[in-house]
Amino acid sequence: MITIYGMRASGNCYKLQLLLDQLGHDYRWVDVDSAGGETRTPAYLAKNPNGKVPLLELDDGRRLAESDAILCYLAEGTPFLPDDRWLRAQTLQWLFFEQYSHEPCIAVARFIRGWLPQDHPRQAEVPTLLQKGAQVLAVMEQHLAGREWFVGERYGIADIALYAYTHCAGDGGFELADFPDIRAWLARVQAQPGHTPMQR
Amino acid sequence: MITIYGMRASGNCYKLQLLLDQLGHDYRWVDVDSAGGETRTPAYLAKNPNGKVPLLELDDGRRLAESDAILCYLAEGTPFLPDDRWLRAQTLQWLFFEQYSHEPCIAVARFIRGWLPQDHPRQAEVPTLLQKGAQVLAVMEQHLAGREWFVGERYGIADIALYAYTHCAGDGGFELADFPDIRAWLARVQAQPGHTPMQR
């Protein structure tokens, strides 16, 4: 059985929970409190030298890091990752958009507001993150106009990856009122068979 | 013929030049001065709403953004991207590491030092970027101990993606003296057939 090392309230980890639950794939979940420093212990760094969750471990001890790489690995050969070369490329485009443009604004604002003290110096980053994150949401809103899903005609891992931190963007102070197509897409994701909520 | 919209001195764009040259793939290159604001014009935003280079455009007008997604698309079916499921997953792991952990330190320090005035407020970010970037380089150094390439036994797009900003890390103020395995790997990459340097 595969093992996921993760923190339940982390969107990057929740992505894997959501996909695995929807695939009906058995897995063992090992809680690692990333916010509390448990990814920086020598024991954890021996598993993932980059000191981050989530981490996938196979029965034979092989390990894979990076949430969106794990999504691709687990979704291979399932309806959650298209076979078509162009649709796969589009999926990767949105996964890299998620990790490079979306997560560093939308997840980081949530982390600062939700996990750091109100007088922490990083609170000063929040206004800039809100401004940049609104631009990211505008890119998503524009793409979703007239579309049901991010890639092709089908719900898949691009939707899962982007859903993870978009559905809880309010925790970071983002307002989705101006993004009706995003809100409609969030509702479609939540209505998918086997959808499980994030533990917050 | 495919078209790449890119800025020659950008590592994210250079990745594509390097792969295409090594594949012997014909392409048209359209210079877009990202640092000078040319990715934020209405005409460019109509091509890539996220306002970034590089961008791949096919003959039929379809477009693909995100440098590492483009690498995967172009490398599909070539020796630069393994067929094996686990090696593909490892490749993606390193591509996401590159975009999430490496580029935001190592490329951004280079940008601030190379493109922004000496009295620009963002110069204050450099010490933190140097510290975080050194941790990223340490992860690479550890991985390269006893290995020739990042994934499997073969040079591929994980090496190309990581080479792009590592070989010019000195521009950002990084010192590679403490990373002998990285320096040996850089030399191996430079010795590959068809290697072309970045225009700086």
From TrEMBL, chains A, B:
Keyword annotations: Transferase
Please give the Gene Ontology molecular function terms for this protein.
transferase activity
**CDD domains per the record?**
GST_N_4
SUPFAM superfamilies recorded = GST C-terminal domain-like, Thioredoxin-like
Asked if the keyword Transferase belongs to this entry, the reply reads: yes
* GST C-terminal domain span: 84-200
Please give the Pfam families that the UniProt record associates with this protein. GST_C (PF00043), GST_N_3 (PF13417)
Q: Which residues form the GST N-terminal domain?
A: 1-82
- Cite the PANTHER family for this sequence: GLUTATHIONE S-TRANSFERASE-RELATED (PTHR44051), HYPOTHETICAL GLUTATHIONE S-TRANSFERASE LIKE PROTEIN (PTHR44051:SF2)
Descriptive protein name: Glutathione S-transferase family protein
